[in-house]
Amino acid sequence: MESLQRPVLLILGAGAVGLSLAGKLSGTARVYVACRPAHADAIREQGLAIEGIWGNGTVDGIICVTDSWEVPAGVEFVIVTAKGTDTRAICEEYAEVIRGLPVASLQNGIGNEEIIAEYTDTVVGGTVTTNFSVVGPGHVRVRSESAPMQLGVWSGDGAAAALDRLIGIVRAAGIPVEASDDIRAGKWTKALLNIAVNPLSALLRAPVGAAADDDLREIVAGLIRETFAVAGAEGVRLPWTTADDYLEHLFCVQVPDFAAVYPSMYYDLRLGRRTEIDLLNGYIVRLGERHGIETPYNRCIAGLIRYAGAHPDAR
Q1: Where's the Ketopantoate reductase C-terminal domain (predicted)?
Q2: What is the reported pLDDT for 1?
Q3: Is the pTM of this model over 0.70?
């Protein structure tokens, strides 16, 4: 009887983030995951292997699905952890499942929640700064945890109640989590670093620390000043009063902290995968057009990434 009372969760687009969450959440919930066939086969055969700060061992009981018809009735929450490039495709594929359910986004970039809101009324936005990685099929590692997960109401009359319920489930599983009273600002705040350094790192084949080079600082400053102008027009309340305030934090704290890191966009470009540029710099360009704000730095960097992605010799 106890197992029947456990909340039922569906995680869509489960890679490193989604599978790690599935492993942890399965302690308090019945978890279904939509993931790649290689992961599904390994998990069905031998369970999910997880290692790192969330514990070491094998997690049984995670149920892998490969199509929407495999998801049973009774799902209480949907959590999307897919790359932003796949948000619309996975929402289309599971549209009949997610319609009417509360859906939470734990994805990089800005704009994913707006897509999800086209498929269901109740949307919860989220940020996660834990370092997850895939070791192999059905095997994930949780390396470090910079801050608690943030979850907040994005849209929907029932989102507040759904948020409280979801936070309770996540917290019961032992995952640090906090409620955010302005998740839009939280999503933009997290995106600032990615907007500033990810495309430069990808194009120059250099780690994040290269952004502090004197030849690149003005480019980074241009990207951020445009982003602040667009955020202001959108009514987004960032933690820093001005772009220059954030740039000081970026160059004094964030770039040194991540100096040796190669962001995911670097690997996406090298491997010929679609990047999330249109949920970062490209998104700033689109919003700038809406508000009549010029964004030449972001327009240039987004165009360069798109070109490099489409031309293997340029990667």
Answers
A1: 182-306
A2: 38
A3: yes
